[in-house]
Design brief:
The chain is an alpha+beta fold and 141 residues long. Helix content is 38%, strand content 13%. The protein is built from 6 helices and 5 strands, in the order ααααββββαβα. Helix 1 packs across helix 2 and helix 2 (22-34) crosses helix 4 (56-68). It is globular and about 45 Å long. The chain starts with 5 loop residues before the first helix and ends with a helix. The relative contact order is 0.12.
């Protein structure tokens, strides 16, 4: 993915009819750059230095706007935490049980459709795997 400039992000927000405020731009920029599925606390901690007036409420509200506009996706791999992903297209996630890192991977979500009973309508699909990542496996050898 190419490096997103503030100008690029402004255009992305405008295309979705979202007013490009400083907080929205900075949060969206952080999500694109971080690419690590951060939590609200991680987003807040990373941005408070640059935006001293930022509150966690603003982070939550901004994320809700970005989710509603389909620019960001909520990732709930564990029941205890919500993480945020700047790749709203369908894809899978793998969480390493050892280091906690979450990896994106391509997954053909159409494979799931063939398993849905007739007469059901699927509105959302998520694929999560948990295990040990390659890096942790290599470090343990």
């Amino acid at each position: 993915m190419k490096e997103m400039t503030i100008k690029d992000l402004t255009e992305i927000l405008k295309e979705k009819n979202v007013k490009p405020s400083l907080q929205r731009l900075k949060i969206l920029e952080f999500l694109f750059k971080a690419n690590n599925h951060p939590t609200v606390d991680e987003i807040y901690s990373a941005l408070i230095k640059d935006i001293p007036t930022l509150s966690k409420t603003t982070v939550y509200n901004t994320l809700n706007v970005l989710i509603e506009s389909e620019l960001v996706k909520v990732v709930n791999i564990e029941n205890t935490e919500s993480r945020y992903d700047a790749i709203p297209e369908e894809h899978g996630h793998f969480k390493c049980r050892q280091c906690g890192k979450i990896y994106d991977f391509h997954f053909d979500m159409n494979l799931i459709d063939s398993q849905v009973p007739p007469g059901f309508i699927v509105s959302e699909k998520d694929v999560f795997f948990k295990g040990i990542c390659r890096e942790c496996l290599n470090n343990n050898i």
